[in-house]
Amino acid sequence: MDTIIESLPMLWEGLKMTLYIFAIAIVLGFLIGLIMALLRLAPFKVLNWIAKIFIDAIRGTPFIVQLFFIYFGLNSFSWVSLDNVWAGIVTVAINAGAYFAEIIRAGIQSIDKGQTEAARSLGLNQSQNMRYIILPQAFRRMLPTITNQAIISLKDTSLLSIIGVADLTQRGRVIVSATFEPFTIYLALGVMYFIIIYLLSLLSSYLERRFVLR
Amino acid sequence: MSMIQVSNLKKSFGDLEVIKDMSTAVEPSEVVCVIGPSGSGKSTFLRCLNRLEEISGGHVYIDGADITDPKNNINEIRQKVGMVFQHFNLFPHMTVLENLTLAPIKLGKLKPDAAEKKALGLLDKVGLGAKAKSYPGELSGGQKQRVAIARSLAMDPKVMLFDEPTSALDPEMVGDVLGVMKDLAKEGMTMIVVTHEMGFAAEVADRVLFIDGGYIVEENIPNELFGNPQHERTKAFLSKVL
């Protein structure tokens, strides 16, 4: 018990880092996903292909390989200098982006095409249709799946400890190597991750209720 | 000048030729009902008029503007052409009032307060002034369709297209919707109505088009078309529905 209390300030620092990375990466990832979904649905074959190649490449490779590719691979070029935190953020964002792209695409396609027809017949152009009619409805439907992906991405951030990012997991590892109490420390880590994820799913169900389609 | 001019319209879906060759014109304030068997191309014809379907051949002119000419902005042309759908297609995430004000505001036609005032007036006109704050999901089918008509009218269209507006309604709801359409016709709105309501066509239409097999087989004033059809196919169809 004493070990946990003594290590709390350090774990707190790690938690802050985890949340910092997660917050930036999930927003970036969502934007990447939205852009890729729109490219995927755009009426131009070339754009569809670009998005499809991106999505397939990311979904078809392990997260760790992507992380090493970005942190070690890209950094081997003189004109790239990503520190480990930003390499981590970029990897999580790109990885989440590929999955978000498919979630958003499916969400957009699930909206009845009569909605688009009504909007277009009123004179709205395609981007106004997306913005005011399709996306607001699609996001409500996507919320549970988006939450699911966000939770997966949050857990993926723990892998960044491998490249030395001082996140929650990495702090835990350091404490364990100093105290030799893996059971208590990793249990504490698990509880902390669980609480964050639980709060995230509470937020999601709140939003679902708040924006329920009447 | 005709409000709508259709010349040698053709429309195919892949190998399927739905509209083979149709030409007609609709004058300002004219009410034209389009009848015909299902699969005859009635709805496709209507949907070609505001380019919800890309036409495969021929021309459609709305108020003189060729809708397929890339120089003409189709979004501007569509603002003049209201459309009412079989399944209403109201925006479920917005209140009734927002359904009516969205397009006029976002397209810069009216300021928000003016759009709201106009919308409330239109809702009163279709008998739904009390439903402004409701969501579409809280309305009956007949109410939804009247809101959909009001939504189109909020853009001050010059023409209204109706695609089987009462086909998805319970029978007791049909009268209210047809009533709103009759009022609109009386006010001089130019209307094209694809319908199975022969009574409505006979009473309100200035002219009835009978469409079958991708052609306008016959067109005439309702009394003549219903009372004295010239073509075998028109006779066969009317004998089944009247």
Automatic annotation (TrEMBL), chain A:
It is found in: Cell membrane. Keywords: Amino-acid transport, Cell membrane, Membrane, Transmembrane, Transmembrane helix, Transport. Residues 15-204 form the ABC transmembrane type-1 domain. The keyword Glycosyltransferase does not apply. Its main location: membrane. InterPro entries: AA_ABC_transptr_permease_3TM (IPR010065), ArtM/GltK/GlnP/TcyL/YhdX-like (IPR043429), MetI-like (IPR000515), MetI-like_sf (IPR035906). It holds the Pfam family BPD_transp_1. It is a multi-pass membrane protein. The chain crosses the membrane at residues 20-41, 53-73, 85-104, 183-207. The keyword Transport applies. NCBIfam families: HEQRo_perm_3TM. Belongs to the binding-protein-dependent transport system permease family. HisMQ subfamily. This is Amino acid ABC transporter permease. It comes from Bhargavaea changchunensis.
TrEMBL record, chain B:
Gene3D superfamilies: P-loop containing nucleotide triphosphate hydrolases (3.40.50.300). One of its GO terms (molecular function) is ATP binding. The keyword rRNA-binding does not apply. The keyword Lipoprotein does not apply. SMART domains: AAA. It comes from the Bacteria. Keywords: ATP-binding, Nucleotide-binding, Transport. Residues 4-238 form the ABC transporter domain. CDD domains: ABC_HisP_GlnQ. PANTHER family: AMINO ACID IMPORT ATP-BINDING PROTEIN (PTHR43166), ARGININE TRANSPORT ATP-BINDING PROTEIN ARTM (PTHR43166:SF37). This is Amino acid ABC transporter ATP-binding protein. It comes from Bhargavaea changchunensis.
